[in-house]
Design brief:
The chain is an alpha/beta fold. The chain is built from eight helices and seven strands; from the N terminus they run H-E-H-E-H-E-E-H-E-H-H-H-E-H-E.
Amino acid sequence: MGNSAKYLTSWRQHILTYRIPIFSQTERYIDFHGKGAELGAGTCWLASLLSKNPKVDHVSIFEIDSQRIKLARTHFCRLFGAVTGKIEFFNDDFHSLPFADASLDFVVCDAALHHSDRIADLLQEIHRILKPNGVLLALREPVLPSLQPLRTWKRLTFGWRERLLGDIEKTYTKQEWLRSFGTAQFHLSFYEYFLGTTLKERIVRCLRKWNGLLFSRYFFIARPL
């Protein structure tokens, strides 16, 4: 992972263009408050934004890549104005979390759930630590299109470069996501999002009636049953 000024600037621009605009659309559905955790936090941009919310007391972040945690500490938390006193860093896996049952108000993740090879165990663990009125927000998780043979093609090719390097890149249909969340005793809702930040995203927005059929623009909100 590089850390040149050019690389960091490019990464920052990607977050500003593609990630923060999605998160801004979720806040109309969720009242973030209390204590929470970010799983697979990467550069911690999401935890940084949440830490600035006066109703959020504490955010524990979990990231298995120590280099990303280092970048978060030295660059991205400062860049996104994090209230660092509210953030606690864990350089660890997210399948076994050091929290008491029903102790967190929220869990968030950005393109993290599909990197688990034990999605059922992960969702059950999230359910365990959330309060009965808690919430899980998942951004940018892959949802396979319903149209065949596009669905099969996407399942075969999604994240192929990363898989060659040994990374875990799982893909699921809407029905498969619903089944996994339901088994873990969550009610899962899909919310469409569309951006206007690039020409490609504006074109996709014009094709929104095809969302779910040819492509997917969704974020997930799940609440314990």
